[in-house]
Design brief:
This protein is of the alpha/beta class. The chain is built from 12 helices and 14 strands. It has an 8-stranded mixed β-sheet, sandwiched between helices. A 6-stranded mixed β-sheet has the order 8-7-6-9-11-10, sandwiched between helices.
Length: 288
Protein backbone atom coordinates (compact mmCIF):
# COMPACT_ATOMS: atom_id res chain seq x y z
CA UNK A 1 0.00 0.00 0.00
CA UNK A 2 1.49 3.32 -1.10
CA UNK A 3 1.80 5.88 1.70
CA UNK A 4 4.20 8.41 0.11
CA UNK A 5 4.33 9.58 -3.53
CA UNK A 6 7.33 11.70 -4.61
CA UNK A 7 7.30 13.39 -8.01
CA UNK A 8 9.93 15.30 -9.92
CA UNK A 9 8.76 18.55 -11.58
CA UNK A 10 10.47 19.44 -14.88
CA UNK A 11 9.68 16.87 -17.55
CA UNK A 12 7.46 15.04 -15.06
CA UNK A 13 4.80 16.93 -13.09
CA UNK A 14 5.01 20.05 -15.29
CA UNK A 15 3.73 19.95 -18.86
CA UNK A 16 5.19 21.76 -21.88
CA UNK A 17 3.71 25.06 -20.67
CA UNK A 18 5.55 24.59 -17.35
CA UNK A 19 2.30 24.20 -15.37
CA UNK A 20 0.65 21.33 -13.46
CA UNK A 21 -2.28 20.02 -15.52
CA UNK A 22 -5.76 19.66 -14.02
CA UNK A 23 -5.63 15.85 -14.21
CA UNK A 24 -2.27 15.78 -12.41
CA UNK A 25 -3.50 18.19 -9.74
CA UNK A 26 -6.78 16.27 -9.26
CA UNK A 27 -4.90 12.95 -8.87
CA UNK A 28 -2.58 14.50 -6.26
CA UNK A 29 -5.52 15.88 -4.29
CA UNK A 30 -7.30 12.49 -4.48
CA UNK A 31 -4.15 10.80 -3.12
CA UNK A 32 -3.89 13.32 -0.28
CA UNK A 33 -7.58 12.81 0.51
CA UNK A 34 -6.89 9.06 0.71
CA UNK A 35 -4.19 9.73 3.33
CA UNK A 36 -1.16 9.48 1.04
CA UNK A 37 1.67 11.99 1.60
CA UNK A 38 2.48 13.71 -1.71
CA UNK A 39 5.97 15.24 -1.98
CA UNK A 40 7.46 17.37 -4.74
CA UNK A 41 11.09 16.34 -5.34
CA UNK A 42 12.84 18.79 -7.62
CA UNK A 43 16.11 20.37 -8.60
CA UNK A 44 14.28 23.70 -8.30
CA UNK A 45 14.42 25.86 -5.19
CA UNK A 46 11.57 26.56 -2.76
CA UNK A 47 10.79 30.01 -4.23
CA UNK A 48 10.47 28.49 -7.73
CA UNK A 49 8.33 25.52 -6.67
CA UNK A 50 5.89 27.29 -4.35
CA UNK A 51 4.11 29.48 -6.96
CA UNK A 52 3.81 26.51 -9.35
CA UNK A 53 2.10 24.21 -6.83
CA UNK A 54 0.00 27.06 -5.38
CA UNK A 55 -1.25 27.81 -8.90
CA UNK A 56 -2.60 24.22 -8.98
CA UNK A 57 -4.10 24.51 -5.48
CA UNK A 58 -1.61 22.05 -3.95
CA UNK A 59 0.08 22.23 -0.56
CA UNK A 60 2.71 19.60 0.20
CA UNK A 61 6.20 18.97 1.59
CA UNK A 62 9.08 19.70 -0.80
CA UNK A 63 12.43 18.08 -1.46
CA UNK A 64 14.20 20.97 -3.18
CA UNK A 65 17.54 21.57 -4.93
CA UNK A 66 17.93 17.81 -5.49
CA UNK A 67 17.70 17.21 -1.73
CA UNK A 68 19.85 20.11 -0.47
CA UNK A 69 16.81 21.46 1.39
CA UNK A 70 13.70 19.63 2.59
CA UNK A 71 10.61 21.54 3.76
CA UNK A 72 7.39 20.44 5.43
CA UNK A 73 4.07 21.54 3.96
CA UNK A 74 4.09 24.71 6.09
CA UNK A 75 7.45 25.76 4.65
CA UNK A 76 9.54 24.87 7.72
CA UNK A 77 13.06 23.67 6.88
CA UNK A 78 13.53 20.03 7.96
CA UNK A 79 17.08 19.41 6.69
CA UNK A 80 19.82 20.96 4.55
CA UNK A 81 23.19 20.13 2.94
CA UNK A 82 25.24 23.18 1.88
CA UNK A 83 28.47 23.56 -0.12
CA UNK A 84 31.23 25.20 1.96
CA UNK A 85 32.74 28.54 0.86
CA UNK A 86 36.10 27.14 -0.30
CA UNK A 87 34.47 24.49 -2.45
CA UNK A 88 31.92 26.99 -3.78
CA UNK A 89 34.77 29.37 -4.77
CA UNK A 90 36.49 26.52 -6.65
CA UNK A 91 33.28 25.73 -8.56
CA UNK A 92 32.77 29.44 -9.31
CA UNK A 93 36.30 29.73 -10.72
CA UNK A 94 35.88 26.62 -12.88
CA UNK A 95 32.53 27.73 -14.37
CA UNK A 96 33.77 31.27 -14.99
CA UNK A 97 36.84 29.87 -16.75
CA UNK A 98 34.54 27.92 -19.09
CA UNK A 99 32.60 31.08 -19.95
CA UNK A 100 29.17 29.52 -19.35
CA UNK A 101 26.10 31.16 -17.87
CA UNK A 102 25.23 29.72 -14.45
CA UNK A 103 23.15 30.49 -11.36
CA UNK A 104 23.74 29.97 -7.66
CA UNK A 105 20.98 28.79 -5.35
CA UNK A 106 21.36 29.92 -1.75
CA UNK A 107 19.50 30.02 1.56
CA UNK A 108 18.10 33.38 0.36
CA UNK A 109 16.94 32.05 -3.01
CA UNK A 110 18.35 32.05 -6.54
CA UNK A 111 21.05 34.46 -7.67
CA UNK A 112 21.73 35.33 -11.30
CA UNK A 113 24.28 37.73 -12.75
CA UNK A 114 22.29 38.34 -15.96
CA UNK A 115 18.53 38.81 -16.34
CA UNK A 116 18.87 38.57 -20.14
CA UNK A 117 20.73 35.25 -20.02
CA UNK A 118 18.23 33.85 -17.54
CA UNK A 119 15.23 34.66 -19.76
CA UNK A 120 17.02 33.44 -22.91
CA UNK A 121 17.93 30.13 -21.25
CA UNK A 122 14.37 29.54 -20.06
CA UNK A 123 12.95 30.51 -23.47
CA UNK A 124 15.27 28.05 -25.20
CA UNK A 125 14.19 25.33 -22.75
CA UNK A 126 10.54 26.09 -23.56
CA UNK A 127 11.16 25.82 -27.32
CA UNK A 128 12.93 22.47 -26.75
CA UNK A 129 10.05 20.91 -24.77
CA UNK A 130 7.47 22.58 -27.01
CA UNK A 131 9.01 22.99 -30.51
CA UNK A 132 5.84 24.53 -31.94
CA UNK A 133 6.23 27.55 -29.59
CA UNK A 134 7.76 30.50 -31.49
CA UNK A 135 10.94 31.82 -29.84
CA UNK A 136 9.53 35.36 -29.33
CA UNK A 137 6.49 33.92 -27.56
CA UNK A 138 8.78 31.71 -25.44
CA UNK A 139 10.76 34.81 -24.37
CA UNK A 140 7.60 36.64 -23.28
CA UNK A 141 6.33 33.50 -21.49
CA UNK A 142 9.71 33.16 -19.73
CA UNK A 143 9.68 36.81 -18.65
CA UNK A 144 6.11 36.40 -17.33
CA UNK A 145 7.06 33.26 -15.35
CA UNK A 146 9.95 35.08 -13.71
CA UNK A 147 7.61 37.79 -12.49
CA UNK A 148 6.14 35.04 -10.26
CA UNK A 149 9.50 34.01 -8.85
CA UNK A 150 11.77 35.83 -6.46
CA UNK A 151 15.02 35.98 -8.41
CA UNK A 152 17.93 37.95 -6.97
CA UNK A 153 20.43 39.66 -9.25
CA UNK A 154 24.08 40.35 -8.42
CA UNK A 155 27.06 41.76 -10.28
CA UNK A 156 29.52 39.61 -8.31
CA UNK A 157 28.92 35.96 -7.37
CA UNK A 158 31.97 35.97 -5.08
CA UNK A 159 30.19 38.44 -2.76
CA UNK A 160 27.34 35.93 -2.44
CA UNK A 161 29.71 33.06 -1.57
CA UNK A 162 31.61 35.17 0.97
CA UNK A 163 28.45 36.54 2.65
CA UNK A 164 28.38 34.87 6.10
CA UNK A 165 24.59 35.18 6.27
CA UNK A 166 24.09 33.00 3.13
CA UNK A 167 24.55 29.29 2.49
CA UNK A 168 25.28 28.00 -1.02
CA UNK A 169 23.19 24.93 -1.91
CA UNK A 170 23.53 24.48 -5.65
CA UNK A 171 25.15 25.69 -8.86
CA UNK A 172 23.30 25.13 -12.12
CA UNK A 173 25.01 25.83 -15.42
CA UNK A 174 23.48 25.81 -18.89
CA UNK A 175 24.56 25.22 -22.47
CA UNK A 176 22.45 24.86 -25.61
CA UNK A 177 25.24 22.67 -26.99
CA UNK A 178 24.32 20.16 -24.26
CA UNK A 179 26.63 17.25 -23.31
CA UNK A 180 29.29 18.30 -25.85
CA UNK A 181 29.96 21.43 -23.79
CA UNK A 182 28.89 20.15 -20.35
CA UNK A 183 30.51 16.70 -20.17
CA UNK A 184 34.09 18.07 -19.92
CA UNK A 185 32.98 20.23 -16.94
CA UNK A 186 31.32 17.19 -15.36
CA UNK A 187 34.66 15.36 -15.69
CA UNK A 188 36.63 18.23 -14.13
CA UNK A 189 34.24 18.38 -11.18
CA UNK A 190 35.01 14.75 -10.32
CA UNK A 191 38.16 16.02 -8.56
CA UNK A 192 35.90 17.28 -5.75
CA UNK A 193 34.76 14.24 -3.75
CA UNK A 194 32.33 16.35 -1.69
CA UNK A 195 30.25 17.24 -4.76
CA UNK A 196 27.65 15.36 -6.77
CA UNK A 197 26.84 16.37 -10.36
CA UNK A 198 23.47 15.56 -11.94
CA UNK A 199 21.22 16.94 -14.71
CA UNK A 200 17.54 17.74 -15.02
CA UNK A 201 17.81 18.19 -18.81
CA UNK A 202 20.39 17.61 -21.54
CA UNK A 203 21.20 21.34 -21.53
CA UNK A 204 22.22 21.73 -17.87
CA UNK A 205 24.31 20.30 -15.07
CA UNK A 206 23.44 20.71 -11.40
CA UNK A 207 26.16 20.76 -8.76
CA UNK A 208 25.29 19.91 -5.14
CA UNK A 209 26.93 18.74 -1.95
CA UNK A 210 27.27 14.93 -2.09
CA UNK A 211 24.72 14.61 0.76
CA UNK A 212 22.14 16.48 -1.33
CA UNK A 213 20.52 13.72 -3.39
CA UNK A 214 16.82 13.07 -3.97
CA UNK A 215 17.07 9.42 -2.91
CA UNK A 216 18.70 10.19 0.45
CA UNK A 217 16.21 13.00 1.12
CA UNK A 218 13.23 10.77 0.24
CA UNK A 219 14.57 7.99 2.48
CA UNK A 220 15.00 10.47 5.37
CA UNK A 221 11.46 11.84 4.82
CA UNK A 222 10.01 8.30 4.84
CA UNK A 223 11.93 7.51 8.05
CA UNK A 224 10.52 10.69 9.60
CA UNK A 225 7.00 9.54 8.65
CA UNK A 226 7.76 5.99 9.84
CA UNK A 227 6.91 4.65 6.37
CA UNK A 228 8.83 1.64 4.94
CA UNK A 229 10.42 2.24 1.51
CA UNK A 230 8.27 -0.57 0.04
CA UNK A 231 5.32 1.80 0.55
CA UNK A 232 7.00 4.73 -1.22
CA UNK A 233 6.48 5.61 -4.88
CA UNK A 234 8.72 7.89 -6.96
CA UNK A 235 8.19 9.32 -10.46
CA UNK A 236 10.86 10.94 -12.63
CA UNK A 237 12.36 11.46 -16.06
CA UNK A 238 16.01 12.40 -15.77
CA UNK A 239 19.44 11.78 -14.31
CA UNK A 240 18.82 13.65 -11.02
CA UNK A 241 15.81 11.36 -10.32
CA UNK A 242 17.81 8.13 -10.42
CA UNK A 243 18.67 8.01 -6.71
CA UNK A 244 15.02 8.25 -5.62
CA UNK A 245 13.80 5.77 -8.23
CA UNK A 246 16.33 3.28 -6.88
CA UNK A 247 15.24 3.58 -3.21
CA UNK A 248 11.46 3.66 -3.76
CA UNK A 249 9.49 0.42 -3.60
CA UNK A 250 7.38 1.51 -6.59
CA UNK A 251 9.11 3.58 -9.29
CA UNK A 252 7.69 5.11 -12.47
CA UNK A 253 9.58 6.45 -15.48
CA UNK A 254 7.85 9.05 -17.60
CA UNK A 255 7.21 8.19 -21.26
CA UNK A 256 9.59 11.05 -22.13
CA UNK A 257 12.28 9.85 -19.67
CA UNK A 258 15.89 9.22 -20.67
CA UNK A 259 16.80 5.57 -21.40
CA UNK A 260 18.69 5.10 -18.10
CA UNK A 261 15.61 6.14 -16.10
CA UNK A 262 13.36 3.77 -18.08
CA UNK A 263 15.81 0.93 -17.41
CA UNK A 264 15.90 1.72 -13.67
CA UNK A 265 12.19 2.29 -12.94
CA UNK A 266 9.89 -0.68 -12.41
CA UNK A 267 6.95 0.87 -14.26
CA UNK A 268 6.30 3.22 -17.18
CA UNK A 269 3.67 5.96 -17.49
CA UNK A 270 2.72 8.45 -20.24
CA UNK A 271 4.64 11.61 -21.18
CA UNK A 272 4.59 14.81 -19.10
CA UNK A 273 2.41 16.35 -21.83
CA UNK A 274 -0.13 13.52 -21.42
CA UNK A 275 -0.77 13.73 -17.64
CA UNK A 276 1.69 10.90 -16.95
CA UNK A 277 1.92 11.70 -13.22
CA UNK A 278 -1.87 11.76 -12.83
CA UNK A 279 -2.21 8.44 -14.65
CA UNK A 280 0.47 6.79 -12.46
CA UNK A 281 -1.18 8.07 -9.26
CA UNK A 282 -4.62 6.89 -10.43
CA UNK A 283 -3.12 3.42 -11.06
CA UNK A 284 -1.65 3.03 -7.57
CA UNK A 285 -4.76 4.42 -5.85
CA UNK A 286 -6.80 1.68 -7.55
CA UNK A 287 -4.38 -0.92 -6.13
CA UNK A 288 -5.01 0.13 -2.51
Amino acid sequence: MIQIIASDMDGTLLNDRMVISKRNADAIKAAQKAGVHFVVSSGRGYTEIKPLIEEAGITCPMITLNGAQVFDEKGNLLSSAAINDTLASNVLYLLKKKGLYFEIVTSAGIYSDSKTNRIENFAELLTKVSPETPYKLAVSMAAARFELMNINYTDDYLKIIEDPSLKVYKFVTFSNEGPKKLDPIREELKQFASLVVTSSSSSNIEINHVNAQKGAALQAFADLMNVPMDNVMAIGDNNNDMSMLKVAGVSYAMGNAITEVKQTAKRLTKNNTEDGVGIAIEEVLKEK
